[in-house]
Design brief:
Elements (H helix, E strand, L loop, with lengths): L6 H10 L3 H8 L4 E2 L1 H8 L3 H14 L11 E2 L44 H82 L11 H24 L1
Antiparallel strand pairs: 1-2
Length: about 230
């Protein structure tokens, strides 16, 4: 923080730094902890996390640091656990951990100013909601297009069935008309044969069965004419 910053910025910056109590609550939820993990978990600088861990070691919250840089988290609030060999307390001639300083001489760390979490989270949430709304609009438009396609397909199928029925009906009429025409032609041919064979005007005058032919013609021809009238009327 600069010396020329307004007082409210300095106050907000100081209030935004997680306290030692926050660090203790975070550490007690872990099986073991190191400075990098605590720094990432609290959002503070590595030096601040290291200072918190050294205070926790003196308070017995964590045990002595291992050779790999991890502190085991204790499950009781007893007295501090003694350090392992080579990690004695400052001021007794022992070599301090690299990058650390005695507690009495340790310079104050200046934590970085974290961005306001609410603003960034709000922007991300708003962008996500806009994307979801746009996806929902696209989905609804696609559903409407699919429904239109289904309706068009159903209409085409109905038209195809109607044309099929009309074609079958036309074919049936054509077959019926052809059959009627063939029946008419056969009837006309039969009528001509009967007229030629039985009508007195067509028989030779020297035939002896003239009276018999005339009697057959008079008996059959009215029936032929009756059939002809029914065919024309029906």
């Amino acid at each position: 923080m600069g010396s020329g910053d307004p007082p409210w910025i300095t106050l907000w910056w100081a209030m935004s730094i997680p306290s030692y109590a926050d660090a203790v609550r975070y550490v007690r939820r872990q099986p073991r902890i190191n400075a990098s993990t605590l720094s990432d978990g609290l959002g503070v600088r590595w030096g601040v996390a290291l200072d918190y861990l050294e205070r926790m070691e003196r308070a017995g919250v964590v045990g002595a640091i291992d050779d790999d840089g991890w502190w085991p988290v204790t499950r009781s609030k007893g007295p501090p656990v003694a350090r392992k060999s080579g990690t004695t307390e400052p001021g007794k001639g022992a070599t301090l951990r690299r990058g650390s300083a005695p507690a009495s001489e340790k310079p104050a760390e200046t934590p970085a100013l974290p961005p306001p979490p609410s603003a960034a989270a709000g922007n991300d949430q708003q962008q996500l909601m806009e994307k979801l709304r746009e996806a929902a609009r696209v989905l609804m438009a696609e559903r409407e297009n699919m429904q239109k396609l289904r309706d068009a397909c159903r209409l085409l199928i109905a038209e195809r069935e109607a044309w099929k029925r009309r074609a079958l009906a036309a074919e049936a009429r054509m077959l019926t008309e052809e059959a009627d025409e063939m029946d008419r032609q056969r009837f006309d041919a039969l009528r001509r044969v009967l007229a030629r064979e039985l009508h007195p005007d067509y028989a030779p005058a020297d035939r002896g069965d003239m009276s018999l032919r005339e009697a057959l013609f008079k008996s059959i021809w009215p029936k032929v004419e009756q059939i002809e009238r029914k065919r024309r009327s029906g």
